[in-house]
Design goal:
The chain has 662 residues and is α/β, with parallel strands linked by helices. It has three domains: 25-224, Ribonuclease Inhibitor (Leucine-rich repeat, LRR (right-handed beta-alpha superhelix)), CATH 3.80.10.10; 325-431, Phosphorylase Kinase, domain 1 (2-Layer Sandwich), CATH 3.30.200; 438-505 and 518-646, Transferase(Phosphotransferase) domain 1 (Transferase(Phosphotransferase), domain 1, Orthogonal Bundle). The protein has helices spanning 2-41, 85-89, 205-208, 245-290, 352-356, 395-406, 438-443, 456-474, 518-521, 537-553, 561-565, 569-582, 592-608, 619-633; strands spanning 61-65, 68-73, 96-98, 105-107, 119-121, 126-128, 143-145, 167-169, 176-177, 189-191, 196-200, 220-222, 325-327, 337-340, 359-365, 369-375, 381-387, 416-422, 425-431, 489-491, 497-499. Helix 3 (205-208) links the parallel strand 11 (196-200) and strand 12. The radius of gyration is 29 Å and the shape is globular. The N and C termini lie far apart (83 Å).
């Protein structure tokens, strides 16, 4: 009887022994799996993984939780061989897996065992074979980057099962077939260019937000996104040998008409070119006689006053987002020159003529001017801002301000590379940032599409970048931003946040009575909403607070936050975060750490948005508070600029959209 009473206690002791003994086994299992994986892809022993040491400290192990590997990032190590399926699937706690920029070959193995995976980076290798169907069963997966490989086959329609899909990059492969009708509202980055896809691009809400660059270099692809409508009978209907004679005759006649029309069009084009050459010669003679044009060895000096539509073509509107495409053109009145800024920019090889011949796409219009994406004939891409008030400031004042702004160089500023000034024309030339703006990251291409709060780690990273850029600006005497908003924060090549449009508010005509757009008004401090009141460093601080609330809520600040919510702003922010947690997208992770960081960010935002300017902290103090908050949350100190650990699993280390000339 006594033995029976002691029996449950023995079972408890034995079960506890097995539970405790399993802990080191799981750790040992990850170490053995990593070493087996290394043996299959690292014959040259490039990875310094010493057996017997703490594997959580090995190169490329970016994060371990409770003795299990959660982030494996092994990039730019020239690894070869093939991935070992068995050892890879044993790492079942991985959230982030990256073998980017190596030389791994073979088919991507079945990775159905990685059920916790959120981000997968296998780009720029030598992978071949079909798209791995096992990927579509990983329901937590948000980021898929398989670009720059030799993959073939079709894109599986089972990708529709990944409801959290945020990034899908498949460009530069050999993928065939049709694009599946992806309809995930979470999709923000998409590229299937340079493949062998065919058929019509599906017209879904998710795919309509992407333009030509996401689908280019697929010869048999059609759809409104690329300006190539699909015919009712297919792209290239073939002629069947069993067709009735009447059908063959109709096709033959149609072919004759096409050939005749082509020849006629060619002759008409030839006549137009001849007339154009004659007209150009006449214009040159007139300009030589009047002495209006002087050619110099250093470049071509052209300038003038453009019409309202200058800077973009008058025709050719993109059906997806309304952006115009065309070339820059101005009336040749007066003289102007393209001036490069900064010693680091002496390698620039283009001249004004190259810029004027570039194809232009309108990126946006604001109170300062219009912004264009300019693609030169060499493939070099820049961003050009054309100031709206062409008569203000005066030439000398404009030159002095450009020399001041042009000297500013900081990792969190978009550098201005050159400027152009003529009698009634002002152009600014910046680097082109293909990853878009912070506004697009939060809200998509349209604010009405519904944004979502970012993970608190992402909010902290963005806040630190923006604050660092503002601190650098404010250290320059008399320099402020004056127009801080999410659309004026661009994402760099490593997804760092960079400020643009800084130092330009002085270019507004002080006598202009044009109303500020609603999109900018509610970022501004209350004391600066009067167009006659000057902007200050403390008004930049207020705008930073509004931007921080936009990050935390995913909502556009197109309402007066202070008057709408007042002292209840913290409660309003927490209610929005709670809604996201209940819907399944858990931006705050629901733990004590996230609640603490959320509270710290809210306190910073509320301090910045004080109605009394003197009560707002200076940006150097704001930066210190953000860094203190972020420093407490750092898990590992060995992450590099390429580490996905810099951001939340949603947006960390998103791949670059490469383009010619950059």
């Amino acid at each position: 009887m006594g033995f029976l009473l002691l029996l449950p206690r023995y079972f408890l002791i034995i079960s506890s022994f097995f539970v405790l003994s399993s802990l080191p086994l799981s750790q040992s299992g990850d170490a053995e799996a990593l070493l087996a994986l290394k043996s299959s892809i690292d014959p040259s022993n490039s990875l310094p993984w010493p057996q017997g040491s703490d594997f959580c400290q090995w190169t490329g192990i970016r994060e371990c939780i409770r003795g299990r590997v959660t982030k494996l990032v092994v990039e730019h190590f020239n690894l070869t061989g093939t991935l070992d399926e068995k050892s890879l699937n044993q790492l079942d706690q991985l959230r982030v897996l990256s073998f980017k920029a190596n030389s791994i070959s073979g088919a991507i193995p079945n990775i159905s065992g990685l059920t916790n995976l959120k981000s997968l980076f296998l780009n720029d290798n030598h992978f071949s074979g079909n798209f791995p169907s096992s990927i579509t069963g990983l329901h937590r997966l948000k980021v898929i980057v398989l670009s720059g490989n030799q993959m073939s086959g079709e894109i599986p329609s089972s990708l529709l099962k990944l409801q959290r899909l945020y990034v899908l990059y498949l460009q530069d492969n050999r993928i065939t077939g049709k694009i599946p009708p992806l309809n995930q509202t979470s999709l923000r980055f998409f590229n299937v260019s340079a493949n062998q896809l065919s058929g019509e691009i599906p017209i879904t809400v998710a795919l309509k937000q992407f333009n030509f660059s996401s689908f280019s270099n697929n010869l048999n692809l059609c759809g409104e996104q690329i300006g190539h409508p699909c015919s009712n009978h297919g792209l290239s209907p073939s002629i069947s040998p069993n067709s009735p004679p009447s059908s063959k005759h109709r096709r033959r006649m149609k072919l004759i008409k096409i050939i005749a029309g082509t020849i006629g069009g060619f002759l008409l084009l030839l006549i137009c070119l001849c007339l154009l050459c004659v007209a150009c010669k006449i214009c040159r003679r007139r300009r030589r006689k009047s002495g209006d044009v002087r050619n110099k060895e250093v470049g071509i000096n052209v300038g003038g006053r453009g019409g309202e539509g200058s800077g973009s073509a008058a025709n050719g509107r993109d059906s997806n987002n309304g952006r115009k495409q065309g070339g820059f053109s101005w009336e040749e009145e007066g003289l102007g020159s393209l001036v490069f800024l900064g010693a680091a920019d002496q390698h620039m090889t283009y001249v004004l003529e190259d810029l004027l011949k570039a194809s232009a796409e309108t990126l946006g219009r604001g109170s300062i001017g219009s912004t264009y994406k300019a693609v030169m004939q060499t493939g070099f891409i820049v961003t050009v801002k054309r100031l709206k008030d062409s008569k203000y400031p005066r030439l000398e004042e404009f030159r002095r301000q450009m020399e001041l702004v042009g000297r500013l160089r900081h990792p969190n500023l978009v550098p201005i590379r050159a400027y152009f000034q003529a009698k009634e024309e002002r152009l600014l030339v910046y680097d082109y940032f293909p990853n878009g703006s912070l506004f697009s990251l939060i809200h998509g291409t349209r604010a009405s599409s519904g944004g979502k709060p970012l993970h608190w780690t992402s909010c902290l990273k963005i806040a630190e970048d923006v604050a660092a850029g503002l601190v650098y600006l404010h250290q320059t005497p008399g320099m402020i931003h004056g127009n801080l908003k999410s659309s004026n924060v661009l994402l760099g090549s490593d997804f760092e946040s960079c400020l643009t449009d800084y130092g330009l508010m002085s270019f507004k005509d002080p006598d202009s009575v044009e109303e500020t757009s609603t999109s900018s008004l509610f970022y501004r401090a209350p004391e600066c909403r009067d167009p006659l009141k000057p902007f200050t460093q403390k008004s930049d601080t207020y705008s930073f607070g509004v931007l921080l609330l936009e990050l935390l809520t995913g909502k556009t600040p197109f309402l007066d936050l202070v008057h709408e919510h007042g002292a209840d702003i913290p409660r309003w922010v927490r209610s929005i975060r709670q809604e996201e947690m209940e819907s399944g997208d858990d931006p705050a992770s629901g733990n004590e750490t996230s609640e603490e960081k959320l509270g710290a960010l809210l306190n910073i935002a509320m301090a910045c948005m004080s109605l009394v300017p003197e009560s707002r902290p200076v940006m150097s103090e704001v930066l210190r508070m953000v860094r203190d908050t972020r420093g407490e949350a750092q898990v590992s100190s060995n992450s590099s600029d390429h580490s996905p650990g810099r951001w939340s699993d949603t947006v960390q280390s998103l791949p670059r959209e490469e383009h010619l000339g950059i």
